[in-house]
Amino acid sequence: MARRHGGAVVVHRRFGTATLTLPEGQRLEFATARTETYDYPGALPRVEPSSVVDDLRRRDFTINALAIALRPERWGELLDPFGGAEDLEQRRIRVLHPLSFVEDPTRILRAVRYEQRYHFRMEPTTEALARRSVADGDLGRISPERLRAELGRVFRERGPQGTPTRALARLGELGVWEWLAPGMRADERVLAALPGAIEWLQRAGESPSVRVIYLAALALELDPDAATAMARDRLRLPPAEAAAVGDVLRAVRALPDFLRQQPRPAVATAELRAPPVETLALLRATTPDPVVRGYLDRYLHEWRTVRLEIDGNDLVRAGIAPGPAVGAALRATLDAKLNGEIAGREAELAFALARLREQLTVKD
Fold first, then answer.
1. Do 326 and 316 contact (CB within 8 A), yes or no?
2. pLDDT (tens digit, 9 = 90+) per residue, 326-357?
3. CA 9, 12, 13, 15: dihedral to nearest 10 degrees?
4. Where do runs of H (alpha helix) occur along the chain?
5. Could you tell me if 186 and 172 are in contact, meaning their C-beta atoms sit under 8 angstroms apart?
6. Residue 92 is inside which H or E element, if any?
7. Which secondary structure element, helix H or strand E, spans residue 360, and what is its range?
8. Cα–Cα dist 231/148, whole Å
9. Using CA atoms in the order 318, 321, 322, 328, what is the torsion angle rounded to 10 degrees?
């Protein structure tokens, strides 16, 4: 294929696969018909050449165990040894054997993604096997890195509904969140509001961690320290990201009551700037209160970008000795500007100098 059409080939001999990237950028994946064995559940497979039927036998679901002949004499012939075509017609997800989820527990999350993306449904025996696998703790046999990657795919899921909401709720029905941390659950109202809240934040130029937002949303009823431990130990998130999950939960619980007291803009800005930026999205998704939402909008679109027209050099040129008092005066001036008490460069300079003269001696 590469000689005929050009492009670059990468061969993965351990897995009997190769990738051809054509000059136009398209990628073609080639795989030797093979069987796979696993040293333990969730491990990477050992690969040996075999027949096409044996190759299909190792697939996750019958709808993925279909093959079409490419040889000219059999061109287009469908090979369907496990009834995948009928399952496809009936929008049914069915495993090929009873130990499928034990063999690779990440198939549980994949089944749920297929269900919600394509409006399919696990057939009763497959769903029962998935529930049993979750209850038996099979997900704990895979590495935190693989589990984290599979959950990330769910968080990024985009199907006909446009959001991962139903997939996350379905994983809750199967017991996945309770397995991950007792007390975790999928609140569909909050999850349904999250995509819009994330987009609201992104439109303002922020790049929040979607993973932190969704994990915090699922952990709303957990103690923040327990949520941090779950993210750190069960999913092995980087320490800063795991800590952010707990910090977001603390802020989301404290900020609504604080903002309902309608603090002045400078005070509100300081409080909203302190926690991780992901807090803003989750707070918007969990709080319908118009007062709180009003503060969030004004902070995101107005207050957080307010800057002074003066700096410390302007104060030094005005005769103020450099030192910590200069920084304090600038912070007080910014607060006054946020509160609408002053506007413009001259007013800022006059305000800062007045504050300093209360404490410092002006140079001759």
1. yes
2. 999 999 999 999 999 999 999 999 999 999 98
3. -140
4. 2-5, 52-57, 84-89, 100-103, 106-118, 124-135, 144-155, 165-173, 176-180, 188-203, 210-218, 224-229, 239-260, 265-273, 278-286, 290-301, 312-317, 324-338, 345-357
5. yes
6. strand 92-93
7. none
8. 9
9. -80
Architecture of domain 181-305: Up-down Bundle (1.20)
Give the per-residue SS3 of 140-168: HHCCHHHHHHHHHHHHCCCCCCCCCHHHH
Count Cβ atoms below 10 Å from residue 17 Cβ, excluding itself: 15
Q: Which two tokens stand for residue 42?
A: 């969730």
Q: Tell me: the pLDDT tens digits for 140-162?
A: 999 999 999 999 999 988 755 55
Six-digit token pair at 126? Answer: 């497959």
Read off the pTM. Answer: 0.86
Q: Report yes or no: 95 and 65 within 8 Å, Cβ to Cβ.
A: no
Residues of the chain with CATH 1.20.58.1960: 181-305
